[in-house]
Design goal:
Oligomer: heterodimer
Largest sheet of chain A: 9 strands, mixed
Order of helices and strands of chain B: EEEHEHEHEHEEEEEEEEHEHEHEEH
Strand order of the largest sheet of chain B: 7-11-6-1-4-5-12
Largest sheet of chain B: 7 strands, parallel
Strand content of chain B: 25-35%
Number of helices of chain B: 8
CATH class of chain A: Alpha Beta
Structural class of chain B: alpha/beta
CATH architecture of the largest domain in chain B: 3-Layer(aba) Sandwich
CATH topology of chain A: Rossmann fold
Structural class of chain A: alpha/beta
Helix content of chain A: 25-40%
Strand content of chain A: 25-35%
Distance between the termini of chain A: 62 Å
Strand order of the largest sheet of chain A: 11-10-9-12-8-1-6-7-13
Helix content of chain B: 25-40%
Number of helices of chain A: 6
Order of helices and strands of chain A: EEEEEHEHEHEHEEEEHEEEH
Largest interface: A-B, 80 and 85 residues
Number of strands of chain B: 18
Shape of chain A: globular
Distance between the termini of chain B: 69 Å
Number of domains of chain B: 2
CATH superfamily of the largest domain in chain B: HUPs
CATH architecture of chain A: 3-Layer(aba) Sandwich
Amino acid sequence: MKIVVCIKQVPDTTEIKINPVTGTLIRDGVPSIMNPDDKGGLEMALRLKDAYGAEVTVITMGPPQADLVLREALAMGADKAILLTDRKFAGADTLATSNALAGAIRTLKWDLIVAGRQAIDGDTAQVGPQIAEHLDIPQISYVADLQWDGQRFLVKKETEEGYQRLAVAGPCLMTVLASGCKARYMSVRGIVDAYNKPVEIWGADHIEVDEEKLGLKGSPTRVAKAFTKGLKQAGEVFEVDAEEAVGIIISKLKEKFII
Amino acid sequence: MLVKKDYTGVYVFAEQREGVIQSVALELIGKARELADVLEEKVVAIFPGKGITDQCQTLIAHGADDVICIDHPELEFYLTEQYAQVVDQVVKAFRPSILLFGATTIGRDLAPRLSARLETGLTADCTKLEISETRELMMTRPAFGGNLMATIMCTEHRPQMSTVRPGVMQKLPADPNRQGTIIPFEPKFDKARFKVEMLENVKEDKGMVDIAEAKILVSGGRGVGNQEGFDRLRDLAEVLGAEVSSSRAMVDAGIIGHDRQVGQTGKTVRPDLYLALGISGAIQHLAGMEESDFIVAVNKDKFAPIFQVADLGIVGDVNKIVPLLTERLKGMIK
């Protein structure tokens, strides 16, 4: 079995803070990490590899320093890594990103594509299904568990009310939840190996896609403006003992006709 | 070449599950009404399902002018390809200017698939939709875990597509006398592409309540400490007739299920009263609750960001204040 796993390097958004005076994002010193859902997806792929034998290729699109998440994936047990990096990819929205990734995946051989459900910097959950459409293969999103019965992939998909069990034969794409399975740590051996394995670097010339569909040119959506949310005016804050605090809360709730 | 005037109308994917129209569909119709009134165009609901024809009037009562009703046995359960084919055919036949989806596990699966099929833009999880002076849709959404807001436009492609999370927009009150047109639509399925089989659709009783529907939320965070602390919150919620919810810390600690998580990766809520107890107020959390009508925060740390959005803040120990508050309210409400 051949599996391609799409991963993304993201800023750890839980570490981002807002400068209370200027209202702007403080990005300095924010660590870059492998997107958590993608890491869950990689883990699922590696479990299939452990159980049935598979070749796992990781692919990412990003700046040259995104090499780091690929090394991490190799250290976890991936076999091959591809970095899509080219100025022609810059400014891509989700559709243009999915076109670039699909263009690269077209040149590979695979039975299964795995992606994270969504990235914590964009939270769109769009690129996975868009890749599936470009490649004309079925998708299953919100995957919490993935098994192979020798012929079909058996999938547990989370829903708002519970879950579904789905089956799909042949090539397909899954988008995976980080909560689906706890990712393994890199082994010391793996880390050493990761730097001995090559990361292939591909530009726009290397992939099978119309250049008009890449980067800013290939992006139907544009950011018209970006801004930090102004925090609303803070209310009164009391620093009193518990007894008095309860009195204040109750009188406020009465005033607001809540009780 | 795109001729924009050929694309008109604000369309809503009217999501149903087992024949029950989802609240988010009505919320989107409410918003679509507002947008369509600015544009002086129609609100149209795209309504696929099985045995659903008799419910079209509900969509009209909440603000739809037309309902495109696709009542077909293949559409009993949501499966990506079946639904994608239907909505793709409707879009190609009717040419909407705007197309909205609920940001549910269905909408967030279907909309990106369609955006790639239709080669148009899609903006996820919008919290604000407006019409610009040039009659384009302005879609505002949080990014970077709610740290940043971005307004996105899709001016050279149609339809302009976006998803909106449940609870963000408000539905209009139903007017049973409202008139509208029901348009039956016969889909042409390419069944060779139906590759995914549903083996089982399981509904779990996770003690599940939709916290987005609650009028009062008693919400706990790290400061509550442990299971025992959270049980005290449940007591308070019971007295107030409220539901309990939480920040991500409590979900990660396994004290409460993900369905009760408020915030960027949980749910968006806007209750009449939000009691933030032992919640410091990470931006991800604030993104999910700051629209609440009245926010009371109790936290030990007087510099906690939650106090910046709270209408009433108490610097103190939740584990002392909560039991006392519960006792006092019990006495009053009896």
